[in-house]
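Hi, here's the filled form for the chain we discussed.

Project: internal
Contact: R.S.
Residues: 206
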Amino acid sequence: MKIYTKFGDRGETALFDGQRVGKDDPRIDTYGTVDELNSSLGVAIAGMAPEGIAAAEEGKNLHERLIALQRELFVLGSDLATPPGSRNEARVTRIGPADIDRLERMIDEATAQLPPLQRFVLPGGSMTAARLHVARTVCRRAERRLVELMRQTPGAENSLAHALIYLNRLSDLLFTWARLANKTAGVGDVEWEGAEARKKLPVSTI
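And the returned structure, exactly as it came back:
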């Protein structure tokens, strides 16, 4: 089977029900951003073993959960690629309250292992944490794309409501896991110091 089909050579692609739409369609843009998020998680997972995080007990748990999350993002992608009432809808699993509850439980579980937040946290610390922060920002962009899609699609505030909440919780989970990755690697959070930090900036000699 050839990897290229040539069906998209004119800037169109197919939703799961076979409907042809432009590649700039908000629905395509939304689940395309979810695909980008999945790739960002793949980069984070690939870098965990060399860093030694995956070998630690906490890191092993995080490693396995990230892979499980990648699989779940495929479910979200198929959800977004299938408009309600369209052909093939019966074959699609929708994101629902149970998926959101599971994310909330994992957030609470990870938060319980971390010191309380005292300040805003800058993206960084260990390499895995930095990569998870990148994934978090991609997740936020997917959420914004979904809001745009919902505004342009009649009735979508009901059909896509759970997907929107899921992405909102997921970005919080990735933030919390980034902090947990730093703790596992023995690296502290990179805290924002506000106006005090600006006083420490070197004076340019240019």
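Let me know if anything looks off before we file it.
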